[in-house]
Amino acid sequence: MSKPVIMLGSGGHAKVLYDILKQQNTNLLGYTDQFHHESKLEDLNYLGNDTIIYSYLPEDIDLVLGIGKISNESIRDRIYKEFSCRGYTFRAVVHKSATISPSASYGKGVQVMAGAIIQSGTFISENVIINTGAIVDHDCIIESHTHIAPGVTLCGSVHVGSSCLIGAGATIIQQVSVGSQSIVGAGAVVLKSVEAYKKVIGNPAKEVE
């Protein structure tokens, strides 16, 4: 029997995950938020701020991280690491319309949204978001805490480092690498590898400060 789930966060990303979890008949105990404000989560119970999670034993619950990632330095990464280090498990969430090859694999806390496609031989590390309609082709590697935004295309054998943001609609051609903590702007077309801690935009993508 699967464990009950607590959602962290109550914004737009959490709302999308909530829809998926409801469709899967998940036992949702409620959500946490640092500030109790009007929630996008309809009738889901507000439990308190994140510290309330420590009143549950790690073996008794799973967590779902409902906080999105809009930069390469994110509160999402910090929260994931904080609770993982204390023994809590973040459940992977996969929309029923996503297509994942049997030979692809993914880690804890990965979130694969509606219409996403993940092809054969791809490896996705922990706490990665593969957002709506993104295409990850064969033999790609996506390291931890990275966000592949809606409509992104990663061609074959692309390697994306940790804590990256690949903006909506970007395309990265085959065998290109993107270094950790980098940002690829929305709609960019990346034709050559990007070093760590860089930002690229445009078609073809060029580095900017």
TrEMBL record:
It comes from the Bacteria. The record marks D139 as: Increases basicity of active site His. The active site is at H138. The keyword Ribosomal protein does not apply. Keywords: Acyltransferase, Repeat, Transferase. This is Sugar O-acyltransferase, sialic acid O-acetyltransferase NeuD family. Substrate binds at G68. The keyword Plastid does not apply. Residues 5-82 form the PglD N-terminal domain. GO terms for molecular function: acyltransferase activity. Acetyl-CoA binds at H147.
